[in-house]
Prior knowledge:
Layout: E1 10-14, H1 19-32, E2 37-43, H2 47-55, H3 64-87, E3 92-98, H4 102-112, E4 117-121, H5 135-143, E5 148-151, E6 164-168, H6 173-189, E7 192-199, H7 201-211, H8 215-236, E8 245-249, H9 252-262, E9 267-271, H10 285-293, E10 298-301
Parallel strand pairs: 1-2, 1-4, 2-3, 4-5, 6-7, 6-9, 7-8, 9-10
Antiparallel strand pairs: 5-10
Amino acid sequence: MATSLAPFPNLLVPYDGSDPARAALKFALGIAAGGAKVTLINIVDETTVMAQSVSSSIVAFDPTPLMDALDAQGSAVLDDAAAECRTANVVVAAKELVHEQPVAGILAAIEKYSIDLVIMGTHARKGVARTFLGSTTEGVLRLSRVPVLTVRTVDRVASSPFATAVVAVDDSETADAAVTVAAMLARTAGTQIIACHAIDTATLYENAMAYGFDPEQLAGDMRQEGAAIVQRSLQRASLPADTPVAIVEGNAADAVIKEADARRATAIVAGSHGRRGLRRFFLGSVAESIVRNSDIPVLVVPARV
């Protein structure tokens, strides 16, 4: 395996000491062993404290002691994270307490420290709650100009975190961006790439029957078309023509996650929609659904990186 992760020389880990944050740090340390530097930030969101002090009409409330306590707690967890980095012989480029709302603070840190990849933890929700991403993760995924990698649990972070990646491929610019990043990982980290194209067979069969087509023939045609889409995307990214390809069927996000599990992948790579204005607040449904439901790390790549 190569000894440099050139695509991501500067890593940002928003760290609060929680289990998901520790998982994100573990992933960062794994790839930083190839030569990357880590920036650590702890977000001190004073909004709630200040709102409480302003709205209190019965007893005067001085927020200073609580803010000092938040700062002390944040500094302590940053020191712990920096110590882990030193133990792993990983360079800490910077560590900072950020006094800002979480999403705005992380986005500002991306610009301030010229970050190439954000690695952040997501909470392992179950049942209906798993349908909803945390507001911070959601906001950063939608607004970040650089790739964002989400990590759920420490035990799903491999010793070589980019050893094998399943890349979601469709006929879009966002998928091309994801494949381009996957190609950089293949060249610099020795990542084994599996290009995965999903065919929504449920919709396919419904539409075929409604319009009088032979559903099996139509499914076969779509598999061929999917294989051609993947090969064109691989070619544009200068990946070898013999890169493994999986044409899977079913709900796109579920099928990609299932394929990643079958291949024992250490990460999934997917593109997010490169929208502008108000439309940028909506992630592509496939990328968002993969992040919500995948137990292994997911690298979400904006349309242009």
